[in-house]
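W.,

You were right to be curious about this one. When I first looked at the sequence I had no strong expectations either way, so I just let the prediction run and decided to look at it fresh. Below is the sequence, 340 residues in total, followed by the output.
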Amino acid sequence: MKIAIIAKTRLPIAEPFRGGLEAFTHALCKEYLCLGHEITLYAHADSDPELNIRGFYGHEHRADYNFEIYENDEYLSILKDIEQSDFDIVHNNSTHELPIIWGAKASIPVVTTIHTPTISKLKAAIKICSGSNNLHFVMPSKSFEATWQPYLDNGSIIIHNGVDLNKWPLVRNSRDYLFWYGRMVHIKGLDIVLDAAHQINMPLKFAGPLDDQKYFDEHIKPRLTESDTYLGHLKQNEIHDYMKGAAVMVSAVRWEEPFGLTNIEAMSSGVPVAGFNRGAFCELIDAESGVVAEQRNVSSLATAIEAAIPLESNKVRRHAEKFSLTTMAQHYINYFEQLL
């Protein structure tokens, strides 16, 4: 099968990944190739060249005040190139509205995996165009599907995200510290994680890109103690190394997160997770792999962390195996074949 994959083009699909969407797109493309399919990834020009990249812009224009104009032109160039090529299907993983508008009348099926909440121009495009029989939508979780359902005239299907289990083998062999990684922004809740770690006197190691300097300066820096360690923006193999001594991977998101790949990566490594009952978190764990903080406060999260520490790594890993990358990719291919 020849698959055109449209990425969110603002950031390279390459390590170190800026966020879950970049990691998801990279892993899925790799797995499509492993399954024997031909792909072209329309992405930032500095993305991983092993993914057969077709990039129209690199870092130029990204910081421009009028970047949205350039971005619209970039997606128009992408869609024109797809029209002039011989693809069987389009898998759209961008968060831009133009692939939706174009896809309503495209000559080949357009499958969009939705990765963003209902707060953008994407919502308007989907509400207007989703009645087209040529548009098909995939959601990564039941909770996320519920938020989008009012805007989808023809519904959607659920395909849970997955991780490469070989890339995230079981390594946890001690319970020395708490661990957190992700983009350092308010909605990710690192400040809450720090407060919970301090409440139970556990050291915290954390990693990720500093995407909001103001948030870091006002809410993270004042909380840091000698027991807290910022590791920088790490590649996945470096993150995996820190799973060896992690007692728990902590989640404290302030939004209805569509999935939460970091939770599966941690569990695949044998590290249990503790987090709030928000977004898809409850869909990702069971009693042997994680603990839910029912109340959205620091004390509840601290209690959940303490309950997660004794969980057995082998059982945590076994649960994570339900979310394999190969299973996810095969579900997508099966769906594509049905549509074709």
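Here's what jumped out at me. The first strand starts at residue 2 and ends at 6. And, maybe more interesting for your project: Residues 177-322 form a domain with the Rossmann fold fold (CATH 3.40.50.2000).

Coffee later to discuss?

I.
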